[in-house]
Amino acid sequence: MTTNEPARIELTLLGQTLTVRSEADPAYLRSLAAFVEKRVTALQQGGVRDPMKALVLAA
Questions:
Q1: Element (H, E) at 37
Q2: Is residue 2 included in any domain, yes or no?
Q3: Which residues sit opposite 17 in a β-bridge?
Q4: Count of domains for the chain
Q5: Reduced to 3 states, what is the DSSP secondary structure of residue 1?
Q6: Which neighbouring-strand residues pair with 16?
Q7: pTM of the full structure
């Protein structure tokens, strides 16, 4: 049985590039980051002005 080595994947959230190490599919992680980004945008449009607070609420 083989195990996947964690790969480094660059994601962008709130304009910041983050490097994540994960065994998960990079496409899945990118889609997850896009989902969180959309939720953050919706929260900010709804009145949450602090980006970090919006990120925590979205996650």
A1: helix 26-45
A2: no
A3: 12
A4: 1
A5: coil
A6: 13
A7: 0.76
Q: Which domain holds residue 38?
A: 7-58
Tell me, yes or no, whether 24 lies in a domain.
yes
Q: Is residue 21 domain-resident?
A: yes
Q: How far apart are CA 21 and CA 12, in angstroms?
A: 14
What's the rounded Cα separation, in Å, for the pair 42 and 56?
Answer: 13
Q: What is the pLDDT of residue 13?
A: 87
Q: What is the pLDDT of residue 1?
A: 43
Query: Is residue 1 a part of any domain in this protein?
Result: no
Is a pLDDT exceeding 90 seen at residue 42?
yes
Distance separating alpha carbons of residues 16 and 28, to the nearest angstrom: 19
pLDDT in tens, 29-41: 999 999 999 999 9
Of residues 1 and 16, more confidence is placed in 16
Domain of residue 15, CATH code: 3.30.160
Which helix (H) or strand (E) is 16 found in, with range? strand 16-22
